[in-house]
Design goal:
- By secondary structure, the protein is mainly alpha-helical.
- Helix content is about 80%, strand content about 0%.
- Helix 4 runs parallel beside helix 8, helix 5 packs antiparallel against helix 10 and helix 8 crosses helix 9.
- The longest helix has 27 residues.
- It is elongated and about 60 Å long.
Amino acid sequence: MLTKAEQTAEFIIQTVAPIFNKNGYAATSLSDITKATGLTKGAIYGNFKSKEELAIAAFRMTERNMLKRIADHQSLSDSPIEKLFLVTDFYRNYYNYTQELGGCPVINMSIDSKYQNDVLFQYAQFSIDKIQNNLARLIDAGKKLGEIKPDIDVMQYAKRLYTMITGAIFMTHTMDDNSYMIDTMDQIDQMIQTQLKL
């Protein structure tokens, strides 16, 4: 059971996460935060030391929710190669999922913070590392189980797959057209089938 203070902090994070994601860190003002939450400046800073601390908490919550969705979807199979296909299956519907968030939190945070805030940028990089490492673990597990070719460079392919995914996310949101995502996921499936699968 959360304390009242913890409930308030959770409410603030959930309320402002989409605002930070849509507007970016620099463009999100304290008045945006107080207006959205209905709380005073004192109540906000009673729960968070700074706007930066709140932005980090909001990003981490959004990231956790996203990674949980991916993990839940991957759990539909025990096979590493099938889990890779489930990754592309998840991203086919990613555009709809991120519409309510104001876009992909990882891409938004990366672009927004690159030249603005080193701390936030490090969180974005850490998030990318987590996703790429998850792909690498799947590929490595597939190699060990004899599902994936033994000579495959695990990290090279993990980076390649995630680069294709993020490129598709960027184009899908920029052009407001999910066909970029669908076509790229089809290409990745073909790559898994022809280049990775044993």
